[in-house]
Write a structure and sequence with these properties.
By secondary structure, this protein is mainly α. It has one domain (4-77, 85-415): Orthogonal Bundle (Proton glutamate symport protein), CATH 1.10.3860.10. The protein is 79% helix and 0% strand. The protein has helices spanning 4-27, 35-74, 78-110, 132-137, 144-150, 153-168, 172-196, 199-213, 217-221, 223-248, 253-270, 273-288, 292-305, 308-324, 331-347, 354-365, 373-405, 411-415. Helix 12 runs antiparallel to helix 13 (292-305) and helix 16 (354-365) packs across helix 17. Aspartic acid binds next to helix 16 and helix 17.
Length: 418
């Protein structure tokens, strides 16, 4: 048995120590060929961090398939799957829209881009957005093995649900397949626990490498933008998610945050909702008390489509770029930003830095120059870490709310002491 309290403490220590040591190394401004950089930071620590992320990622596809097929087979009737899906998707969209609105409002008060004064580039050519029709058709995989090989999460989700429903309807053979899948689920969960025991070291390696190589000088130039995004992330995290957990799930938000904290450390150090997915799912089921039937569906779906942190960055960035280029956004423009940032965050893959790419969609929608993205790239690495932690927290909060409303929640698990 893992000592959870000690593990959480060690992960946070690993994160803090990595951040500190990395920052010190960065402050030393060593020459690029310095052996400490070549063999240490960009050698051993980089290898350690990358191996850790790879070992988390390797679990994502088998975990989502097995866990969701199990969950769907236990939810047996189609109507409860539909209800869980509708509630989760509805809440994901609403919270993301709240996140962007909060970002736009605060950015308009702080005015992070005023005084930067840049002229819009003339060679701005909007790219064509993918047709909605294709997006919908592509949700159903033509070849599930290919979907798994590509890591196409929505297609894997659809396939797993179909298999789960068929298992539930299949009588005796279905029961045998379900028993096998349940056994596999146990095995994969055990593998996640095994990996978690080395997480403090993995997180430490990631943080040392990141912070040793991170340029802080740009943060000083963009301090107002940086602080606005960070502030809105914290606000949304504390206000919106606490309200969800308190009023919709009738649970104590402090207990929720305490139990969920280690997952945020993973998200922060990997900057990837996808890589964090195995840990999120394990935590939501075994520490927060959401039953597998709901967690196995809502968490992978959330890691794919629910990105409140990303939407917040996009909201603030839009205002920042408009102000920097002295372009006014109308009220209708702001409504478009809320809509497109919500959709863009759905289309943002849960991997590092993609939020900045989908920001182009939002900017184009309101006629802002896409070149503006270049202004904020310098500080995006650190913001990406922070927004990913918010992204995964939103998934967990909504999974908890949905589970509670469906009677698929075990409060004793949440209240259990470590
Ligand atoms: N890194 C984010 C995530 O994985 C996505 C992004 O905003 O770039 O959740």
């Amino acid at each position: 048995m893992i000592d959870r309290a000690a593990l959480t403490r060690n992960i946070l220590i690993g994160m803090g120590a990595g951040l500190l040591i990395g920052s010190v190394v960065h402050a030393l401004s060593l020459a690029a060929d310095n052996p400490l950089l070549v063999y240490g930071i960009n050698g051993i620590f980089d290898i350690g961090g990358k191996v850790f992320i790879a070992s988390l990622k390797l679990l994502v596809v088998p975990l989502v398939f097995v866990s969701l097929a199990c969950g769907a087979s236990n939810l047996s009737d189609g109507s409860s799957i539909g209800r869980v899906g509708a509630k989760a998707i509805g809440l994901y969209l609403i919270t993301t829209a709240i996140a962007v609105t909060l970002a736009l409002t605060i950015a308009n008060v702080v005015n992070p881009g005023i005084g930067i004064n840049l002229a819009a580039g003339s060679e701005f050519i909007p790219k064509e957005a993918p047709a909605l029709k294709d997006v919908i058709i592509n949700i159903v995989p033509t070849n599930p093995i290919d979907a798994m090989a590509q890591g196409n999460m929505l297609q894997i989700i659809v396939f797993a649900i179909l298999i789960g429903v068929a298992i539930a309807k299949c009588g005796e053979p279905g029961l045998r397949v379900r028993a096998t899948l349940n056994n596999w689920n146990e095995v994969i969960m055990r593998l996640i626990m095994m990996l978690m025991s080395v997480a403090p070291l993995g997180v430490f390696c990631l943080m040392v490498t990141l912070f040793a190589n991170m340029g802080f000088s740009t943060i000083a130039d963009l301090l107002k933008y940086f602080l606005t995004v960070a502030g809105v992330l914290v606000l949304h995290f504390l206000l919106t998610y606490s309200a969800l957990v308190r009023f919709l799930a009738n649970l104590n938000p402090v207990t929720f945050y305490k139990k969920f904290a280690p997952v945020m450390a993973y998200a922060f150090s990997t900057s990837s909702s996808n890589a964090t997915l195995p840990v999120t799912l394990e935590n939501v089921e075994h520490r927060l008390g959401v039953k597998n039937e709901v967690a196995a569906f809502t968490i992978p779906l959330g890691a794919t489509i629910n990105m409140d942190g990303t939407a917040i960055m996009q909201g603030v960035a839009t205002v920042f770029i408009a102000q920097a280029f002295n372009i006014d956004i109308s009220m209708t423009g702001y409504l478009m930003v809320v809509m497109t940032a919500t959709l863009a965050s759905i289309g943002t893959a849960g991997v590092p830095g993609v939020g900045l790419i989908t920001l182009a969609l939002v900017l184009q929608q309101v006629g802002l120059p896409v070149e503006g993205i270049a202004l904020i790239i310098g500080v995006d690495r650190l913001l990406d870490m922070m927004r990913t932690a918010v992204n995964v927290s939103g998934d967990a909060a909504i999974s908890t709310v949905v589970a509670k409303s469906e009677g698929k929640f075990d409060q004793t698990v949440l209240e259990q002491r470590d």
